[in-house]
User: What shape does this take?
Amino acid sequence: MVEERRKIHTSFHDISPREYMYFPKGTLEPGKPGKFSRLEIAHLSIAMGVLTLVFSFVLTKNNIFTGFNNIGALLSFIPISFLGIVIAFFVHEISHKFMAQKYGLWSEFRMYPMGLLLALVFGIFIGIPFAAPGAVMFRGDARNFETGRIAVAGPLSNIVISFVALLLYLFVFLETSTIKEIVGFVCLINAVLATFNLLPLGPLDGAKVIKWNATVWIILFSISVAIMAYILHFSPVATF
Assistant: This one.
């Protein structure tokens, strides 16, 4: 078996592989592209459920400071929030995963229980969309350019989605409507996620992208910030 020379987590946290819930026992065989384990599906489902709830509370301003007086709006926004989480968070994470699998590496998502708990507390009681749901991990003998491409895959997917959503927002859905607001929300959440993950800090994707190709990082970070700034200014759902 090839000696593992590199251990990388491609999301918000460096999570110890000694914790039983993150790595299965036995040999970590490379998964086929698109293959998910039952444990991974469970972790993804829990993370998306928590994030859906958090963003629903935050964007409908139901929290301890403003009062939980808009439960009707909260319930009606849950499907929209779930749509945004699937399009942004899920696509981001599986983009990391599929790229790692393309290079023959073991790769699976693992939730971060404490991060999800904090997200619930901050979102429901304080109204701040803090989210540290977990990490897509990959293990194996990854070369520098492979590590960079794996890291860039997540934010790049969000940038592409946010750009397409922005075009729809500006040129297709011209009149104010529920659909236009949903498209604006999809644009916003993808742009925010891309911008945050491209920050050149610690375990975030940005630090790995810079190490691989600083020019690529500058281009993608500039685009994500520009889209985020624009939609924050013009979209009626941009409340945070």
Summary: The beta strands are 6-9, 106-111, 134-140. The longest strand covers residues 134-140.
